[in-house]
Amino acid sequence: MLAWAVGAFLKRNDVGQVVIAAGDLVGARELLGELAADGRVVVVRGGASRAESVREAAAAADAVMTWVAVHDGARPAVSQGLISRVFQAAREHGAAGPATPVILTIKQATGPLPARVERTLPRQSLWAMQTPQVMRRADLLAAYERCRLPLELVTDDLQLLELAGMGAVLVEGEEGNVKITHPGDLELVRGRLA
Fold first, then answer.
1. Any idea where the domains of the chain sit in the sequence?
2. pLDDT tens, 37-69?
3. Is there a contact between 97 and 171 (Cβ–Cβ < 8 Å)?
4. Which residue in 14, 105, 111, 126 has the most C-beta neighbors within 10 A?
5. Does the 2-193 domain belong in CATH 3.90.550.10?
6. What burial class does residue 60 get, using C-beta atoms within 10 Å of its C-beta: 0-12 exposed, 13-18 middle, 19+ buried?
7. How far apart are alpha carbons 163 and 147 in whole angstroms?
8. Confidence of residue 182 (pLDDT cuts 50, 70, 90)
């Protein structure tokens, strides 16, 4: 999965560096296979949460890198068209991320099930986020400095910018840009990438 995700970015001439945050540096390089030999690949130690890992990777990127694209290694089927769309929107608006409309009815409830429904959220204004999420590196690092939430509660990179009062736009995501969370997801993606 990691090699597929990283490979999508290494195919591009507009990607100067790929920084991977991992708990096991040697293991990450082994998973990359021959891609690890690409001089643009850097592997750094990740943090205790997703947001901490992104912070470590952004801080480790070469200072000449103006833009960062944060992408989940668990999204190995990202298309070149999606990457290009997000890159373009970020250049035009300062920050961007792909999203798909929420098509299910979403209920808010507290506690384990069975739980009393508190309210139904209006789905016409709800979007399911994907990656890559692209922003200026300086903006992302500044947003970390301003973040008042514990980083383990930050689940999205554009959320950091949002909390810091910085803007971002959403662009059309893709149903095929699946995040692998269950064994069946991996089989679905394998079929698409085969």
1. 2-193
2. 999 999 999 999 999 999 999 999 999 999 999
3. yes
4. 126
5. yes
6. middle
7. 7
8. confident
